[in-house]
Amino acid sequence: MSVGPKPGDSFPEDVVFEYIPWAEEIDGFSACGVPINYNASKEWADKKVVLFALPGAFTPVCSARHVPGYMENLPKLREKGVDIVAVLAFNDAYVMSAWGKANKVTGDDILFLSDPDLKFSKSIGWAALDGYKSHTGRWAIVLDHGKVIYAQLERSKNVLEVSSAEAVLGAL
């Protein structure tokens, strides 16, 4: 993909994130799972997927509006044929897992994925530099059987317009 995916682009064949799968026995904050690789290219090849990214777990806009918007609209996304909803940030898999727990997300309702080295975000040109540190930009991509059908990057860090659940629903 070039800078910023566009509708009609194919999702790359080598996208691997890290995550800790939800399990009832590790649902509490004091219990940790083991991070594993999540081969998004393989897992998403035959599915309709909403992948949204944000600057970081436990941050104001991300925690107050971005993730809650997807949680509230999950039934509507499912009605539109979305098989998988995933959130991506640069935080490590442990932090992303804890954030899922803090949001009371169970099972695979929303996958909390890690792009710790920003490999994917940088590959599409949607990583962000905020002062001295890099992080994931705020964006949303919708895939349908490996093809991009929606891809939008927010105009600035604390803006939630084109990557919100409502915006994605409007595009489906």
UniProtKB/TrEMBL annotation:
Keywords: Antioxidant, Oxidoreductase, Peroxidase, Redox-active center. The keyword Nucleotide-binding does not apply. The keyword Oxidoreductase applies. GO terms for molecular function: thioredoxin peroxidase activity. It comes from Elaphomyces granulatus. Belongs to the peroxiredoxin family. Prx5 subfamily. InterPro entries: PRX5-like, Redoxin, Thioredoxin-like_sf, Thioredoxin_domain. CDD domains: PRX5_like. This is Thioredoxin peroxidase. GO terms for cellular component: mitochondrion; peroxisome. Thiol-specific peroxidase that catalyzes the reduction of hydrogen peroxide and organic hydroperoxides to water and alcohols, respectively. Plays a role in cell protection against oxidative stress by detoxifying peroxides. Residues 5-172 form the Thioredoxin domain. SUPFAM superfamilies: Thioredoxin-like (SSF52833). The active site is at 62 (cysteine sulfenic acid (-soh) intermediate). It comes from the Eukaryota. One of its GO terms (biological process) is cell redox homeostasis.
